[in-house]
Amino acid sequence: MIQIDLAVRRRPEKLTSLQFLLLFLGILLGTSLIVGIGLILQWNSLNNLADEIGELGVKRDSLEILEAEIIRYKDLKDSHSELMLVMEDARKDTERRLDILRLLRTELEPGMKFLSCRIEPDSVITRCLSPSNVKVARYLEELSRSGLLRVIESEPQGTRQGLIEHRVLLKIQ
CA-to-CA distance for 44 and 51, rounded, in angstroms? Predict the structure, then answer.
């Protein structure tokens, strides 16, 4: 058996004004709700971003303080290095002067007395008492053999305590 539907299709009914208004309000409320939730989420993320900016500001300030401390440390380190170099030079100069003074005292001939000396950067002036000019000559010869000093001049200055006082000018080698 074959059945045939002879019914004519009806055209869809038009929305009434009330239905249209309700549909419009539903769409408007749904859109407003979605946009509102989106705005709230954006506001929350903006607050989080503001907090992060504040934290970054604090970190920047602490890094600036740290940078200033590093610069001060480097300046102090440079000053320390310079000071150590100056101290090393002074130590070497002091040792050299002590070696010269030790040499001047140890090479004295028997009967001679060491009075004083003035050690300059390139020369030494020393005063001593000796019973004879021969002993002064041997003393000066020993000083020259050391390789540290070279005799420039030796002159008697008179007598003191029954001994001849000599002023000796030496060049530091």
Answer: 11
